[in-house]
Model the fold of this input.
Amino acid sequence: MIRLDHITKVFNQGTADEKVAIDDLSLHIPSGDFVTVIGSNGAGKTTLLNLISGTYFPDNGAITIDGTDVTRIPEHKRAKYIGRVFQDPLIGTAASMSIEENLAMAEKRGQKRGLRWGVTKAKRERYREVLKRLELGLEDRLRDPVGLLSGGQRQTLTLLMVTLSIPKVLLLDEHTAALDPKTAHKVLQLSREMIENYRLTTIMVTHNMQQAIEYGNRMIMLHEGRVRFDVTGERKRNLTVDALVKSFGAVLKDETLLTAAQ
Amino acid sequence: MASILRILPISFEQGLVYSLVAIGIVISFRILAFPDLTVDGSFPLGAAVAAKVIISGYAPIWGIVLAVAAGFCAGYATGFLNTRLKINSLLAGILIMTILYSVNLRIMGRSNIQLLTYHTLFTPMESLKISRFYLVIPFFFIVAYGLKILLDLFLHTDMGMAMRATGDNEQMIRSLGVNTDRMTLLGLGISNAFIALSGALVAQDQGFADVGMGIGTIVAGLAAIIIGETLVRAKTVRAFTLAAIVGSIVYKMIIAIGLRLGLAPTDLKMATGFMVILALGLPVLKKEKEGKLHLRGI
Done:
């Protein structure tokens, strides 16, 4: 489904701040895989997602999604393949626009937008039904601006927005890191349900080793822009945080990651 | 009191025709969060195009049509500088505004054109035996309010919502597949089409077009929308466009009252400037928290 061939991305090339974010990285993710990605700060996790989504282009290498070479295709034209949830709950929704308007915009992901009425009665009824299942009471607040919602509510809404138009690829970028533990857990459960129901090919970046082990069928660890560790199936199921720390603690040297492991 | 009543019709007439400028500014500043300064050039551009068409012997309606098209191109040009050439939004507006000064002189062939002896859109209304206000005010009301409704409708379509999201959360709407550059170009085009239409109507209403008539248009328009948003307590799109019309009329009233009370016409722009500074500065000094929407674009 996703194929990265010898991808390199260097920031601030030729300056004193030059940083090799992704270093000759190749990765193949078959359809239906749920991959968790861990790595210390600056390992290239978010850069990887940004390259796949087209936020910026790689300096070298090729990216293929579902058989299409998307290496030089701008972000807005890749959107029909990709659903994305960011770490910052504020990024996934438009604050000044209403809940129903945000949902309607998401439903049109990757499609042509013309002069048809944005939120029809039929759509509103449908949104009310899907919102009911979240049990956040949002079904009675369809016309409220999203800016009035809490971070957790907004992140849950962003997830729901992804399901309104099923993508081929789902990118989750530490999407629960900014939430309180209880909300984070709920959002994670919802993500898992969604991924299983729709068999979404998923890449989930996380700072939490326990999450990385618990979720998905494959885990990769990035370090200095390369894949340092790649584990799937049986071996991944038998993985423990302790074992991971023992093997890679010295490499990771990341307080957040290690604290989360304790 | 009697003298205040006497300024009412003229305030309504001017407020309504200039409300098209305020609506244009709502599109750029409020909807797109783009502080577009093209305004001071696109307003006289509309006037210049309309005047030139009329003295060349064509029907006034063609002057209106061409003025709107010219305004759209002016806004599009500013958007082009910003999105494609990556020039800062304020500078892009100033550049096009400055270029338009020469363009307007070229269109008119001189620094001003008198229209009093020509057949304009208002000539039929003035030939009747009733006061011109009875016809001109309803006419401007229908134009301004009708276009407000059309704009409201547009902003609730799929494309219009994508335009609003471009100003609200560019990263989000791009990840949903919208070419935000195109939205900015289209939005600035529509915004300046509104403003040029206002210029074309003002030139015919007052009977002349002048290359200097655009100076201070942006500041007056901002004053109008700030007054309007305070009075209407605008939060929704419909309320923002309504606020532009209400604010524009009230602003013209305040100016008319000020002039009656002895404000020198030459101090008008200074007074308007201070009005805007006060409106923007007072909440900061009082440490009031402003909503994101309210600060947008300014």
Remarks:
- Chain B touches chain A at residues 154, 156-162, 164-165, 168-169, 171-180, 235, 292-293 (CB under 8 Å).
- The radius of gyration of chain B is 19 Å.
- Strands of chain B lie at 112-114, 208-210.
